[in-house]
């Protein structure tokens, strides 16, 4: 593997985004097949449930921002006038410690949009929609109890890794992986912008679990005009994102082609409005969300009608590492904002890269080690929750457990009126249904494997 150069971006910013013809050429080339810190942690005093934050890159304070916010009246802190900060415009400085109520609400909202993918996923082996969505686009959100979200689903997304399972006649067919949605006029007024959302579910099928275990790094090479071989991502996630299944009866083209096409179409439709792109996913889905965010930014497709960059934010829930240091650095350069919501006891968030990761690429904080280019590295800002232990991986990785903890009000207060809020919150989370999804059994097996390795 080649050593990543200190500056992955050799071209000036104004040259990185080519003309409209360059962007068009990039989109056309997408159809071609792809070639083959220790961070400081701040915890609250609660022993069982805590919230902490880790920054995977230093955050530069913006002079006047925090005092100015402190002087604001609470009535002025609405989502419509704070949305750029909530979406990571200043890397969530001053918003995660303590966790700002508007940010908490947005994390939960996007998490519920991800949870909809599980609720709508058909696990009935006798159904003609088995391993696909149970509902049509126009009624999916309503059918899963989310009619008031203010979003309209515009496209379903299908994906399949280019993997043949033992005993199978060929590569696994495409399965429903998520959806694209856009905010309605009323929702756009409340949000302060027209929000385009892409939501991804986590691992369900056997082939997807096999892909998750493919931990070798491979160059992404998303931009045909600049391959950037030092920007590498996990080969299994890349396979799910880029593999094409010509036999899929619901759509055509790879997951990547479907997404770039639909997001570009929506940006063009609302190009004269303020737009945001929000990509949210759980587990493997968070990896696909990050790959899409990087892809859009690398190709320069996240531009509005005036040529301005559309804010692109990834809300990652229980996400694993996706790429190497070169990938992280490039995402930072391109302005892709990532908020990682993790449970510190969740083994999936420590994969891949158990041994070669961001903590093992330098010696004494200075010397870059020879294998640094092969080290997996997390991207973005981490909001870490602390609940349960790895002896119960089905709970520590469950999306509903994440959301249940975040929904609980005033989580920093351990006691109120003599009632132990920690116990109450834990009881609330335990009452959630953890028996529904098949992927959880695989999560248990992975958790046991990680523990057996002494992690």
TrEMBL record:
Protein name, as recorded: Phospholipase A1 EG1, chloroplastic/mitochondrial
Transmembrane segments: none
Organism: Panicum virgatum
Single GO term (MF): phospholipase A1 activity
Similarity-based family: Belongs to the AB hydrolase superfamily. Lipase family.
Function per UniProt: Phospholipase that releases free fatty acids from phospholipids. Catalyzes the initial step of jasmonate (JA) biosynthesis. Required for the biosynthesis of endogenous JA in seedling, inflorescence and spikelets. Not essential for JA biosynthesis after wounding. Mediates spikelet development and specification of empty-glume identity. Functions in a high temperature-dependent manner to maintain floral developmental robustness under heat stress conditions. Functions by safeguarding the expression of several floral identity genes, such as MADS1, MADS6 and G1.
Compartments it resides in: Plastid, Chloroplast
UniProt keyword list: Chloroplast, Hydrolase, Lipid degradation, Lipid metabolism, Plastid, Transit peptide
Ranges where the Fungal lipase-type domain occurs: 197-354
Annotated InterPro entries: AB_hydrolase_fold, Fungal_lipase-type
Alphabetized Pfam families for the sequence: Lipase_3
Region (Disordered): 1-20
Keyword Transmembrane: no
GO cellular component: chloroplast
EC class of the enzyme, as a word: hydrolase
CDD domains from the UniProt entry: Lipase_3
Major subcellular location class: plastid
EC number: 3.1.1.32
Biological process per Gene Ontology, one example term: lipid catabolic process
Catalysed reaction equations from the record: a 1,2-diacyl-sn-glycero-3-phosphocholine + H2O = a 2-acyl-sn-glycero-3-phosphocholine + a fatty acid + H(+)
